[in-house]
Amino acid sequence: MTPRRLVLVIALALVAASVAAGPRKVLVLPVDGSADAGLRTKLTVVVQGVAKGIPGEVTNGDTTFAETASAVGCDSNRPACVDTVLGTLGVDEVVWGTATPNADGSTTLVVKRATKGAPPHEQTAIITRAESPDVATSRIAPLFPETSATAGSGSAAIAAIDTPAGGSAEAPAPAAPWSDQKKLGIGLAVGGGVLIVAGLALWSSESGVQTDINNAPDRTASDIQALKDLESKAQGYAWGGNIAMVLGLGAGGYGAYLLWKDHKEHTIVTPQPAPGGGITFMLRGRW
User: Fold this and answer.
1) Strand order through the sheet with 25-28
2) Contact 195, 241 (CB under 8 A)
3) CA dist., res. 113 & res. 256, Å (int)
């Protein structure tokens, strides 16, 4: 296989993938309201369990919607505040809930999810005094039609909360899967590096052939023909090295850009309570 053909084969292998769009960012905030704090914590787990199946990258926040709205400077009771929260935090969708106790001992849980420019959709669930908080899983499920397959995750998480100290250790959370964009970025970066190495090798071969040309005799017709063959071979190595270097630098640079873009898209700013009061903002992301 000639140097040019080898480079073209490698280049075709590199461009055999397509760029995937970055995932949507979804922020799930804790349940607030006047219900008991312990109950709100368990209901938060329920909401997080059902919401984690929303397509995109789902992140759990540390502050309630009201606290978040206050931190970004808007009134949580005004519809426009949702867009302000979404824009400030750089997410595509936000999910939150409010738990309010009733006179008969039951609790009303209202869960909302909203995207920019649209009014929030909401679902109400009534949990009686005798019922476990995880019954809210099926009652808020209509608000999350795309997550029905994970409907049982809330009760499992609540069971983990209720496990007494000294029980079995909780399994570590699985690492977030790589996005298609990150896979392509790594592939292009590695492939670009391979092409650069191939280019350097071709240039080195061209240099070696050039040495042979400089030392080759040119007295007879056969000597001149051999010299022409060497010159053609050196030219092939030189062109192959040039093409490999250009493609390698292009692929490596674009791969680095995709990795940077993926990191940026997987970074979410979430508010959280600060020691001694107030709100701080935390950057959540990955490489």
Assistant:
1) 57-60, 25-28, 93-101, 107-115, 121-127
2) no
3) 35
Q: Say if residues 137 and 152 touch (Cβ distance below 8 Å).
A: yes
Q: Which of 190, 200, 233, 242 is nearest to 8 (CA)?
A: 242
Name the 3-class secondary structure at 212. Answer: helix
Neighbouring-strand partners of residue 66: none
Distance CA 287, CA 282 (A): 16
pLDDT at 18: 36
CA pair distance 100, 37, nearest whole angstrom: 11
Find the range with the poorest average confidence among 61-75, 90-104, 159-173, 177-191. 159-173
80-89 vs 65-72: helix axis angle to the nearest 10?
80
Check if the beta carbon of residue 144 is closer than 8 Å to that of residue 53: yes
What's the pTM value of the predicted model, to 2 decimals? 0.51
Thinking of the domain 25-161, which architecture would CATH place it in? 3-Layer(aba) Sandwich (3.40)
Residue-level length of the chain: 287
CA dist., res. 211 & res. 216, Å (int)? 9
* C-alpha span between 58 and 118 (Å, rounded): 20
